[in-house]
Write a structure and sequence with these properties.
The structure holds 2 protein chains of 2 kinds. By secondary structure, chain A is mainly alpha-helical. Chain A has 23 helices and 5 strands. Chain A has a 5-stranded parallel sheet with strand order 2-3-4-1-5, sandwiched between helices. In chain A, strand 3, helix 9 and strand 4 form a beta-alpha-beta unit. Chain A starts with a helix and ends in a 12-residue tail after the last helix. By secondary structure, chain B is α/β, with parallel strands linked by helices. Chain B is built from 14 helices and 7 strands. In chain B, strands 2-3-4-5-6-1-7 form a 7-stranded mixed sheet, sandwiched between helices. The radius of gyration of chain B is 23 Å and the shape is globular. Classes of the chains: A mainly alpha, B alpha/beta. The interface between A and B is large, with 63 and 70 residues. Chain A: Belongs to the rad17/RAD24 family. Chain A: One of its GO terms (molecular function) is chromatin binding. Chain A: It comes from Anisodus acutangulus.
Chain lengths: 591, 354
């Protein structure tokens, strides 16, 4: 769907020219009217220069020309291989053009395909009572949807797809509401669709083809925002899982590599688990292996009759990170480049790329993103070379021995931080919680060094609290604090233990802060009735003097107070259980 | 009712401990014009008691009729309105509040709430005093901005409103505020004075209080009268016919801190540091302020320490106490202090015992 749209955009751009010209012929004749024409036609301004009375439009025209030139270039870049713009077809993008149509063409692992295929075969042969839903999960671009389409065509089944309705723009909504149309949420529409599919799925008029061979494909779940909407979606999908009688595939893209603290990513995982427990079958797609990407790319090259070096293909395959869609687009882009600059012998190009040997300097390739836990693992494990490299000796200025550390076996901490896009506060909390596990048992000095740097980081972060509206400064402080925390941990841990497997804990500090806040509120609320005095006692006095004394008195003297406090204790403990979040059992292995 | 409240002197002439201060205050009231006042002194020295007695002296028994209100104030701060929840205690003549409860919003509290109250000048009937008194607790906890706006409020509304400020340390109150107030220093009571108070209470309660035991409580109380009275009451509950060598129940958190201190002395390793962290969390959960934990911990550690290390350790304690006030997460700094101590102590042990 999306791809088609993108294509369409390109078509419009290239045909713009003709339209302009045709418009020009219409507009240039009544010259006097030109200023009042609301829709400026820049082409006209260029070809038929206006008098000095209208400098504005000519200026705009020059801007437009620039834009146009740029667009043309862009256009050429993308469609340059074509003979003429008019011949463009939908298969302009290689991703669409070389879409796998047969099972053999899929880059997905054979066994996985087989697994999905047999699942559908069974369902199509004899409809089962329940258990008709297949969850297909995996990162983006690993061929989830393509697999299902290919299998469907292999089995001769029609795919009945949930097509996402076009989003309503706000102005459009305003317009519609004037004319009496009511806004319908996308979630409502989706619910309606699911409802129909569940109840009348087989008799739906929109369905063509025989009854036996229909596959329901839900590729694009509506994005939900907030708890309520999410629960609705979950309920609706659960019903679907339990009641639907057509074989159904729900495609869920995992974003687990991104920020794990984000609500939406968490809720997809949760959804997956809950649907799985409701009886849906689950298949996980792994990133496509480098070899099979290479194979696919080579095939495409052959079909397109392009000469691309094997090294280049391998480079693309590696850089794509298992995302085959991305790999193919990269390849197409690369081919354009090679085509347009034939002066550069491809051999030489490869050499330069090879000697740089850095994924980031390629014009394509996904920027790697790390989860926060990966970054933490890198900082905590503190892997270093076992000796100094000669390169660093050359420009090293003399350091005292206690400040000298071996070079790191990873990118600069700032780069890692960038990739992990974690907040400085979260990072320092996690480091603080976990770093002690990774220190040598003997070296309390290291522990102090680490602790002092974390204290520095906290100090930096707290200077943010001045409620300054200066986001630039805030950003700098954030990154400086993160950098101090990360580098402090790396530097301070001078004698890292040989790497062992460790679980990364969730900062206990958060729990402590919560319960301390709760206790404080409770204390303040008791202030009035319990400490029956004429003044407001302050918090410190209450915590350090009244409470302990009352504890001594309370156990013996007043029964009621004791009962009270016991009830409160109960509620406290339940609260704590609720607050235990999912992160606690996230564990990473030695990396 | 706790004895602390039960035997709190209600009027200035019944005061046992700071009689000289009480007399001066009485003179001040009788002369009719009461300036802004700043009471400062250590915790448990009787500031609040004096303030309450002073209010009673000014307004008569109606000052005792107070009601506690938990009110949400809507403060208009430029573009948005901020809701500040604050507990106040008020009679017809005075309002008492704890501006620092509002956290970092204390500035608005001072600016707006006080302004509003000060504007509502009580109607001058029957020749009564035409001003209202605002009692502000924990002024030293106020942020700098809040103290600045306090200064302006004091000047602007001085005709209709008197402020009585109460704080533990005058050094954290800005010079500008201090110079606009009559500063009243309330010293911590001497141990003999505490013994006097305890004997007074014992007489009222009809208890036999051995002299040695009273002195013992007074000594343990660290010259904190409130604490002494509370301890006295707990001792009464624990074991009545008092004996001279009766065990005085310690404050639970202090005991806990001394446990931490001995943990630290026993072993110095990251693992032990981690255990200590757990215990510190426990204290923080129970709302013991981190500054007090650090102070107490230093005190406990110094008791057991060789004198040549004391200087350095104190230096680092001061360093991290400062950090703690600047920073946000106290545990980071507390832990850094503990780690530094461990590091110092360990190298000391190695150098002396090899």
């Amino acid at each position: 769907m999306k791809k088609a749209k993108r294509n369409a955009a390109i078509v419009i751009l290239s045909s713009d020219d003709d339209e302009n010209f045709s418009l020009k012929s219409n507009f240039t004749q009544p010259k006097s009217k030109s200023v009042s024409v609301p829709r400026k036609n820049p082409k006209r301004a260029k070809t038929a220069p206006l008098s000095a009375s209208c400098p504005r439009s000519s200026k705009e025209a020059s801007v437009f020309d620039e834009m146009k030139r740029f667009c043309e270039e862009f256009d050429d870049d993308f469609t340059g291989t074509k003979v003429s713009a008019g011949l463009q077809s939908k298969d302009d993008m290689w991703v669409d053009k070389h879409k796998p149509h047969f099972l053999e063409e899929l880059a997905v692992h054979k066994k996985k395909v087989e697994e999905v295929k047999t699942w559908f075969e069974e369902r199509l042969k004899a409809a089962m009572d329940n258990n008709n839903v297949l969850l297909v999960a995996g990162p983006s671009g690993v061929g989830k949807t393509a697999t299902i389409h290919a299998i469907a065509s292999h089995l001769g089944a029609t795919i009945w797809e949930w097509t996402t309705p076009t989003p309503t723009v706000w102005s459009e909504h305003l317009h519609n509401s004037n004319s009496g149309l009511q806004y319908k949420s996308k979630l409502d529409e989706f619910e309606g669709f699911v409802e129909r599919a569940r109840k009348y799925g087989l008799t739906s008029p929109s369905l063509k083809g025989s009854h036996a061979s229909v596959i329901l494909l839900i590729d694009d779940l509506p994005v939900v925002n907030g708890r309520v909407a999410y629960e609705r979606l979950q309920r609706c999908l659960k019903l679907l899982v339990q009641l639907v009688c057509i074989p159904t595939a729900i495609v869920i893209t995992n974003y687990d590599k991104d920020d794990s603290a984000d609500f939406s990513t968490r809720c997809w995982e949760e959804l997956l688990v809950s649907l799985h427990s409701a009886g849906a079958c689950k298949v996980n797609f792994n990133p496509v292996t480098v070899n099979s990407i290479k194979k696919t790319l080579t095939t495409i090259c052959r079909k397109e009759k392009r000469e691309v070096g094997a090294d280049m293909i391998e480079l693309i395959a590696k850089a794509s990170g298992g995302d085959i869609r991305h790999a193919i687009t990269s390849l197409q882009y690369l081919c354009l480049k090679l085509h347009r600059r034939p002066i550069l012998p491809s051999k030489e190009r490869l050499d330069t790329v090879d000697c740089l040997d850095d994924v980031f300097c390629l014009p394509f390739g996904k920027d790697e993103s790390l989860s926060l836990f990966h970054a933490l693992g890198k900082f905590l494990h503190n892997k270093r070379e076992s000796e100094h490299t000669t390169a660093s000796d050359r420009d090293a200025f003399l350091l005292k021995e206690k400040f000298v550390r071996f070079p790191l076996k990873m990118d600069a901490p700032e780069v890692v931080l960038c990739q992990a896009h974690g907040q400085a506060r979260t990072l320092s909390d996690f480091l603080h919680e976990n770093v002690l596990d990774f220190l040598n048992e003997e070296s309390i000095d290291d522990a102090w060094l680490v602790a002092s740097y974390l204290s520095d980081a906290d100090f930096l972060l707290s200077s943010l609290n001045g409620q300054s509206r200066d986001f630039g400064a805030e950003n700098i402080i954030q990154s400086a604090a993160a950098s101090v925390a990360a580098r402090g941990v790396l530097f301070g841990n001078a004698h890292p233990v040989s790497s062992r497997w460790h679980a990364v804990r969730r900062p206990k500090l958060w729990e402590v802060e919560q319960s301390s806040r709760r206790n404080k509120c409770q204390m303040l609320s008791q202030r009035g009735d319990l400490y029956n005095s004429l003044t407001i006692s302050n918090k410190i006095v209450m915590a350090t003097e009244f409470r302990p004394a009352l504890k001594w008195l309370g156990y013996r003297a007043s029964e009621s107070f004791q009962a009270d406090s016991m009830v409160e204790d109960d509620s406290d403990s339940t609260c704590l259980h609720e607050n235990k979040l999912d992160i606690s059992d996230d564990e990473i292995e030695d990396c | 009712m706790l004895w602390v409240d039960k035997y709190r002197p209600k009027t200035l002439d019944k005061v046992i401990v700071h009689q000289d201060v009480a007399q001066n205050l009485q003179k001040l009231v009788s002369e009719g014009d009461c300036p802004h006042l700043l009471f400062y002194g250590p915790s448990g020295s009787g500031k609040k008691t004096l303030i309450m007695a002073l209010l009673r002296q000014i307004f008569g028994p109606s000052a005792d009729k107070v009601k506690v209100e938990n009110k949400i104030w809507k403060v208009d701060a430029g573009k948005r309105t901020i809701d500040v929840e604050l507990t106040t205690l008020s009679s017809t003549h005075h309002v008492e509040l704890n501006p620092s409860d509002a956290g970092f919003q204390d500035r608005y509290v001072v600016q707006e709430i006080i302004k509003e109250m000060a504007k509502n000048r009580p109607i001058d009937t029957k020749g009564k005093k035409g001003f209202k008194v605002l009692v502000l607790n924990e002024v030293d906890k106020l942020s700098r901005e809040a103290q600045h706006s306090l200064r302006r409020t004091m000047e602007k509304y001085s005709a209709s409103c008197r402020l009585i400020l109460c704080s533990n340390s005058s050094s954290k109150v800005t010079e500008a505020v201090r110079s606009r107030c009559l500063n009243v220093r309330i010293n911590a009571p001497m141990e003999e004075e505490i013994v006097n108070v305890l004997e007074f209470i014992a007489k009222k309660e009809g208890l036999q209080l051995p002299q040695g035991f009273a002195a013992c409580i007074a000594e343990k109380s660290n010259r904190n009268l409130r604490r002494a009275v509370l301890t006295f009451e707990t001792c009464r509950v624990q074991q009545y016919p008092f004996t001279n060598n009766q065990a005085i129940p310690p404050m639970d958190w202090e005991q806990y801190v001394s446990e931490i201190a001995s943990d630290i002395m026993k072993e110095q390793s990251p693992k032990r540091l981690f255990e200590v962290r757990g215990k510190l969390y426990e204290l923080l959960t129970n709302c013991i302020p981190p500054e007090i934990i650090l102070k107490r911990l230093l005190f406990e550690l110094l008791k057991k320490l060789d004198s040549e290390l004391k200087h350095e350790v104190s230096h680092w304690a001061a360093h991290y106490e400062h950090r703690m006030r600047l920073g946000q997460k106290a545990i980071f700094h507390l832990e850094a202090f503990v780690a530094k101590f461990m590091s110092i102590y360990k190298s000391f042990l190695i150098s002396t015992f090899g």
